[in-house]
């Protein structure tokens, strides 16, 4: 489901899009990126109406889509609700619901890096898989090689994000100039330290990560009129200094 690419491959992909620092002007950046954005029917909106990390649950929107919020102090939040069909197995429709938040950086070459803080999670429903419905951790750094904001005469500001390979995300429409977000802090317990003292006085500590994969989630309801689609490609960037490398290598 997820694509994991080496950091060097991502850097080369980004470098192919832009070899010099981008200059933001009114021709393609009519408004700041700060605010709340949503695709399609605009029912998928980040914030408390979508996810409850403490309970590891979701409130399912009426339609599928994706939503982003960006704050002026470098925080982002994402909400995704997706179904993807399988041409060879039409009955095996896979659904995903994703929530994550963390810090973003607008890199000088025009790319955006989203770095989660570690408490994101997703629900996956795959009726033809061994485990058909489960929750699991979701914390992947994502790279968008470029972005643009145009003013649509009918809908106002419209944000276009382009993934690491240049493919576009569905156009996003601005719902609000203010970011709709949950609190900017860790909201879900994803690890616990277990300290053990032996009879001879030795102390050991082990970090556990509960609920890496938990079944029994509520059933996703596939919207009417579903057509074949594709999952977004989620990018693993292991290097904690990816932003610096993006600067120095002009990727």
Overall 3D geometry?
A: globular
Largest sheet: 8 strands, antiparallel, barrel
What is the spatial order of strands in the main beta sheet?
A: 1-4-5-6-7-10-11-12
Helix content: under 10%
Contiguous uncertain segments of 5+ residues? 1-19, 204-211, 223-251
| Helix and strand element order | HEEEEEEEEEEEEEEEH
Describe the model:
There is one protein chain. With 251 residues, the protein is mostly beta strands. It has one domain (7-245). The chain has two helices and 15 strands. It has an eight-stranded antiparallel beta barrel. The chain has a two-stranded antiparallel ribbon with strand order 2-3. A two-stranded antiparallel sheet has the order 13-14. The longest helix has 11 residues, at 7-17. The two termini are 25 Å apart. The model is unreliable at 1-19, 204-211 and 223-251 (pLDDT under 50).
Secondary-structure blueprint:
Layout: H1 7-17, E1 35-39, E2 51-52, E3 57-58, E4 65-70, E5 75-84, E6 94-106, E7 112-116, E8 121-125, E9 133-137, E10 142-152, E11 156-163, E12 172-176, E13 192-197, E14 203-208, E15 213-215, H2 242-249
Antiparallel strand pairs: 1-4, 1-12, 2-3, 4-5, 5-6, 6-7, 6-8, 7-10, 8-9, 9-15, 10-11, 11-12, 13-14
GO molecular function: unfolded protein binding
Keywords: Endoplasmic reticulum, Membrane, Signal, Transmembrane, Transmembrane helix
GO cellular component, one term: endoplasmic reticulum membrane
């Amino acid at each position: 489901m997820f694509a994991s690419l080496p950091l060097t491959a991502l850097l080369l992909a980004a470098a192919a899009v832009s070899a010099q620092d981008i200059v933001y002007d009114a021709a393609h950046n009519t408004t700041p990126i700060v605010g709340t954005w949503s695709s399609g029917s605009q029912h998928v909106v980040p914030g408390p109406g979508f996810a409850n990390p403490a309970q590891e649950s979701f409130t399912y929107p009426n339609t599928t889509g994706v939503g982003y919020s960006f704050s002026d102090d470098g925080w982002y939040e994402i909400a995704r609700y997706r179904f993807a069909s399988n041409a060879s197995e039409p009955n095996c429709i896979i659904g995903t619901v994703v929530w994550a938040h963390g810090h973003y950086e607008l890199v000088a070459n025009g790319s955006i890096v989203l770095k989660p803080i570690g408490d994101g999670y997703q629900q996956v429903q795959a009726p033809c898989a061994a485990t058909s419905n489960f929750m699991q951790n979701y914390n992947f750094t994502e790279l968008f090689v470029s972005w643009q904001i145009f003013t649509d005469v009918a809908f106002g500001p419209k944000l276009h994000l382009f993934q690491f390979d240049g493919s576009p995300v569905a156009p996003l429409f601005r719902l609000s100039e203010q970011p709709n977000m949950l609190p900017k802090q860790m909201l879900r317990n994803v690890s616990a330290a277990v300290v053990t003292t032996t009879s001879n006085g030795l102390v050991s500590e082990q970090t556990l990560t509960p609920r890496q994969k938990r079944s029994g989630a509520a059933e996703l309801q596939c919207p009417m009129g579903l057509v074949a689609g594709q999952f977004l490609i989620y990018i693993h960037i292991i290097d904690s200094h990816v932003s610096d490398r993006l600067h120095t290598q002009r990727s």
